[in-house]
Amino acid sequence: MKLAGIEAQVGxxxxxxxxxxxxxxxxxxxxxxxxxxxxxxxxxxxITYIKTHEGWLYLGTIMDLFSRKIIGWAMGSQITKELVLxxxxxxxxxxxxxxxVLVHSDQGSQYTSHDWSEFLKAHGLEGSMSxxxxxxxxxxxxxxxxxxxxxxxxxxxxxxxxxxxxxxFNYIEMFYNTKRQHGSNNxxxxxxxxxxxxxxxxxxxxx
Length: 207
Fold this sequence. Notes:
The chain has helices at residues 81-95, 114-122, 139-153, 161-176, 190-206; strands at residues 42-52, 55-64, 69-76, 102-105, 126-129. By secondary structure, the protein is an alpha/beta fold. Strands 3-2-1-4-5 form a five-stranded mixed β-sheet, with helices on both faces. A hairpin with a 2-residue loop joins strand 1 and strand 2. The relative contact order is 0.17.
């Protein structure tokens, strides 16, 4: 690789984050069932970090496992419970689920807070958490972050948090959700895959 002038793409060092006191831990109800048969059956959530010259920008996302669509997101300069609650609030506002949805996370302090647990209960959502130290239990959420960093960030250090925020917004809403093809979606984007499902459902009801 050195002789050919090729370098491997690697990430940057993970920021130090103080782990808060655990409060509410729920069992792993998702159990790696990553392919539900309909939208708003199972959502997964996670947090990642993006480097800027102003400091870290944290990104929290909510993904619908059915289509792999990012249905809620929030960004901020601190990794707080408010960050994940804002992302979940966006998801609930956008989707307005008519039945209980399983919401799966890791055991980070943001997700074990009483506020997270109370928000789930207040909106008829069911909590689920990965087993301690088992990253594969939330592999699909982490896979999205790998795509984001490989396809858009590419080891870049953004000049400001605002420039990073705008670029990540563009990736999620203008490319990933609407255009990026997924093998799990039969080669369709998340938006197109959900549209196909809704059309097929309507046709079944009519016929």
